[in-house]
Amino acid sequence: MSMTKNSPVIIGESRLAHDLCDLCREKGIAATLLSRPEELTPAAPLVVETYTGDRHKKKLMLQKLDDFLAPASVIVSSCLGYSATHLASWIKKPERLVGFATFYPLKDRKIIELSAAMRSGEGSIAAAEVFFKSLDKETVRVKDCPGLTFPRILSLIINEAARSFEEGVATAEEIDVAMKLGVNYPQGPLRWADQIGLDEVLAVLEGLQRETGDDRYRPAPLLKRLVVAGFLGEASARGFYTYQEGQVKP
Amino acid sequence: MADKSEKIGVLGAGTMGAGIAQVSAQGGFDTLLFDIKQEFIDSGMGRIRGYLKGSRERGKITAEEERRILNRLHDTTRLEDFKDRHLIIEAVPEQLELKREIFKKVDALCGPETLIATNTSSFSVTAIAAATQVQERILGLHFFNPPPLMALVEVIQGDRTSKAAIETAINLMRQMGKTPAQAKDTPGFIVNRIARPFYNEALRVLGDGSASVETIDRIMKQAGNFRMGPFELMDLIGNDINFAATESLYRSFFEDARFRPSPIQHRMVMGGNLGRKTGRGFYVYDKK
């Protein structure tokens, strides 16, 4: 599939970025996946920027996009770790930026949450809605904050599971079994975290802690250590569990 | 299910006690159900009979199985009858002094090999065990409501519970068809603690004015694949029960911000808007 002038561009290297690109192609949309903003054509009408890590890198990425892109282009940026308003404050044309927050894998997400930054233009939000609708995803607009609703609530559940595990309350397996059987969760929180990526979960917790100043969001020390050690979950074959060929190693 | 040799006792014939007695009898165990008044027992046994009748009518069990399960169930208002039990599960109301008092009596009554378990969800097993002489045989067996339907049992090891007691209890729970998950004696054990943010953070999101009750429920179901939204679930559980669980954890963790209860839910409890059972909670329900 060749890149056309009007096709959306996805920037990032995460599982979610690849997943989003695959989904576009499955729906017949000629999306391009790029790891660096320098590679894109200025005429791209919509760019989805999925980076959730280091603040400096995310800022630089958004600023480069803002410089390269034509004035009418829309930037849909992952607001897992920063509110959309915060992200928009880093660029010269804040009205073009819209926040979105979701977790890998997209096949499990019927709804994608969008957030208008304080300076987002109505046209930018509408463009983001059209884009996700073309992927057969419903969109919901919610108030701007890091992680929006589903990633925010799930990250707190995972954080509490990580704390319980770290404190030796129970093993990872028993925590996951208990949450599936005791309250019917679709997945155990630690196994779920490994699937999403521990770095993405940590980004939400740190974002909420930074922007609200509330102690309830402070991340479990174990979660921080796993992320800095590079044990991000399934993607790096180790997180709360160890994986071999995509399966949990006993 | 074939008859098993161990004898089980259940203290308290309320919703949890009667449900646990039913699970035990269904698992093939001779089961003795205690309460302080015959009318409480009759009400609990009535619920068990009704449940089993329903199971038979839906073809889940045969009339013969129903008869055998009921034959394994006995009742008493005399605590002394618990002398010959191998495992006793306490499910009396959640009051620490009441639980301690009954543990003290049963501990004095039974030989040291009898395991005595509490179904508490809000107290420390160690705190209850402190009322007894043989603390090694005291443990927690936390069933979920309704016990016949919920597969999980949290098996709680108090500070002085022996490994052997935990292993025996785990084995008995498996024989009752349950999936045990072993946990240390910490506030909320596994489930009540880790599930707290599902309710409490949803309340915070609502309080922030980020999204409506309906929208948050829809997002958690459609984006998160949760079977129910947090507000639907709080209305089902009862806002009073749910608030009390959050408040108990908040106190147990010495006012850690992670468990701070929501003023919205507090107001609903004070206003009597408890959920389905009062016809009004986060949603309005048709009065039957």
General description of the model:
The complex is a heterodimer of chains A (250) and B (288). By secondary structure, chain A is an alpha/beta fold. Chain A has helices at residues 15-26, 55-68, 84-88, 122-133, 150-166, 172-182, 189-196, 198-212, 221-228, and strands spanning 9-11, 32-34, 46-49, 74-78, 97-101, 111-116, 138-142, 243-244, 247-248. In chain A, the strands form two sheets. A seven-stranded mixed sheet of chain A has the order 2-1-3-4-5-6-7, sandwiched between helices. In chain A, strands 8-9 form a two-stranded antiparallel ribbon. Chain B is α/β, with parallel strands linked by helices and 288 residues long. Chain B folds into two domains: 7-191, 3-Layer(aba) Sandwich (Rossmann fold), CATH 3.40.50.720; 195-278, N-(1-d-carboxylethyl)-l-norvaline Dehydrogenase, domain 2 (Orthogonal Bundle). Chain B has helices spanning 15-26, 38-57, 63-72, 96-109, 125-129, 163-175, 191-194, 196-207, 213-222, 230-237, 239-252, 263-270; strands spanning 7-11, 30-34, 73-76, 87-90, 115-118, 138-143, 152-157, 179-184. In chain B, strands 3-2-1-4-5-6-7-8 form an eight-stranded mixed sheet, sandwiched between helices. In chain B, helix 1 links the parallel strand 1 and strand 2. The longest helix of chain B is centred in the N-terminal third of the chain and has 20 residues, at 38-57. Chain B starts with 6 loop residues before the first strand and ends in an 18-residue tail after the last helix. Chains A and B meet through strand 6, strand 7, helix 5 and helix 6 of A and strand 8, helix 7, helix 8 and helix 9 of B.
